[in-house]
Write a structure and sequence with these properties.
With 285 residues, the protein is an alpha+beta fold. The protein folds into 2 domains: 8-124, no CATH class; 132-278, Rossmann fold (3-Layer(aba) Sandwich). It has 6 helices and 15 strands. The longest helix is centred in the last third of the chain and has 25 residues, at 257-281.
Length: 285
């Protein structure tokens, strides 16, 4: 067993010790405990497995690390970084060294934590990133905000649309009556105006309250530098600042209206599929 080191914090990265123990609560459906060093203190979770080897591992917060815990593994941590709703963990060993914990909200407003690796993410739902598989089996139901003028019709997609006032965004998908994915549509002039007057930051803060949200621009990134009524350098600088401030809400340039519609369709389909996967994986406590 590799000796533990005291947790340290440097340049946004925590190093310390990752520990796995057996859960002393024999009645729990989550038989393991894991401890992860964070700046605010060690994060202790109950887990369904000791590592996400073959599938994503569902986790749940534990009150504390038991003093008499039966530790089965302890490994030094090379890096532990909190990035929005996820924690990226890199262990100091050759194999099974990289993983990620994703924090989300599941049915009933409960917190859901999923521990995954790149391999288990691909194996769990092979078609998740491209929702064509899902669209082939069911028509995507897209909610369009009533204030959206000249909205996308998704007429060439396996999708239907219905109009309703949305609290945030222009297009949304729902699961069990809860919005799980949102897209805000922008033209380049509108994006530039809202960047300069500061209203885009407010919109991004609202979008960040949705599990998965994005801003889609019906234009090319190169055209930012052809803007006539505002300094292009100012727009690009403010856009970079806005994206860093809200990294979980991507701002995507899609060159044209048809391409922006296509990207939004894929994004909303993937958001719905992933939300459905979260519900399937959330069980036990």
């Amino acid at each position: 067993m590799r000796p533990a080191r005291g947790p340290t914090w440097c340049d946004g990265r925590v190093t310390g010790s990752f520990k796995v123990a057996r859960n002393p609560d024999g009645q729990s459906s989550l038989p393991f405990l894991i401890s992860i060093p964070l700046p605010s203190g060690d994060l202790v979770l109950k887990a369904r497995d000791s590592w996400p080897r073959t599938a994503k591992v569902y986790c749940h917060r534990a009150e504390e690390w038991p003093l008499d815990a039966e530790v089965v593994e302890e490994v030094a941590v090379r890096s532990c970084v909190r990035r929005g709703m996820a924690v990226d963990l890199v262990l100091d060993r050759a194999r099974e060294n990289r993983s990620q914990l994703v924090f989300t909200t599941v049915r009933g407003g409960r917190e859901g934590i999923f521990w995954q690796t790149g391999r288990t993410t691909r194996k769990t739902r092979p078609g998740l990133r491209v929702p064509s598989r899902r669209a082939a089996g069911a028509v995507l139901d897209v909610v369009v905000d009533t204030r959206e003028r000249y909205p996308w019709k998704f007429s060439t997609k396996q999708a239907t649309t219905r109009r309703r006032a949305l609290a945030v965004g222009d297009y949304a998908v729902e699961l069990d009556g809860r919005i799980v994915g949102v897209v805000e549509r922008k033209t380049l002039p509108d994006l530039a105006t809202r960047l300069v007057d500061g209203s885009l930051l407010l919109a991004l803060s609202e979008l960040a309250t949705v599990p998965r949200a994005a801003v889609v621009v019906e234009d090319r990134w190169a055209d930012v530098f052809r803007l006539a009524h505002v300094a292009p350098g100012l727009v690009s600088e403010m856009l970079a600042g806005a994206q860093v401030r809200y990294p979980n809400v991507p701002i995507v340039f899609c060159e044209s209206r048809p391409l922006a519609e296509e990207w939004a369709y894929r994004f909303l389909g993937a958001a719905l599929a992933y939300a459905d996967e979260e519900l399937d994986g959330a069980g036990g406590g």
